[in-house]
Specification:
The chain has 2 domains: 86 residues; 71 residues, Winged helix-like DNA-binding domain superfamily/Winged helix DNA-binding domain (Arc Repressor Mutant, subunit A), CATH 1.10.10. The protein is 69% helix and 0% strand. This is RNA polymerase sigma24 factor. Pfam families: Sigma70_r2, Sigma70_r4_2. Keywords: DNA-binding, Sigma factor, Transcription, Transcription regulation.
Length: 167
């Protein structure tokens, strides 16, 4: 998601009102668990409040906060239950539980990836960042980002194929 830079971020309340949904979406993409995502957002904001002048001084405040969100996620060791929606879409007479089972399996496969790999995929596919920007956020190289993404996608493909064989 491309979030335009703010003219002024002096007002932390205004910033949070505007960017909390984006922070939550990113955190949910990283965690795959709603409660943990909420915790990551809260922890990020708690860490940023005393450093708000640094956020204000940043050229792109959202980039600063996005990086902080990813770092909070990567530093957390909280492993909670995977969040699965209780509401499955029923379309064209398909079994609603089959959709929940598929979603649950997909979430478990994503959750099995290392945290750094999940961060790379979330930044690439949710935030729509290029590899160099992801490398900057994670403090690594562009090549390392590409390798992590390739390995993660390959691991997901293998797991998906195994899941299909079992069904």
């Amino acid at each position: 998601m491309a979030v335009e830079p703010l003219d002024s971020v002096d007002d932390i309340g205004g910033f949070v009102a505007r960017y909390r949904p984006a922070m939550l979406r990113l955190a949910l993409g990283l965690c795959r668990d709603l409660d943990t995502a909420e915790d990551v957002v809260q922890e990020t904001l708690a860490r940023l409040v005393p450093r708000w002048s640094m956020v204000c001084a940043a050229t792109y405040p959202w980039a600063y906060v996005r990086q902080a969100t990813v770092r909070v996620f990567l530093s957390s060791r909280d492993e909670r239950t995977v969040y699965v929606s209780e509401h499955a879409d029923v379309a064209d007479g398909h079994d609603a539980m089959a959709g929940v089972d598929d979603l649950d399996a997909a979430v478990r496969r994503i959750r099995s990836l290392p945290a750094r790999s999940r961060a790379v995929l979330a930044l690439r596919y949710i935030e729509e960042l290029d590899d160099q920007t992801i490398a900057d956020v994670l403090g690594t190289t562009r090549a390392a980002v590409r390798v992590a993404a390739h390995r993660a996608l390959r691991q997901l493909a293998v797991q998906t194929e195994r899941h299909r064989e079992i069904k």
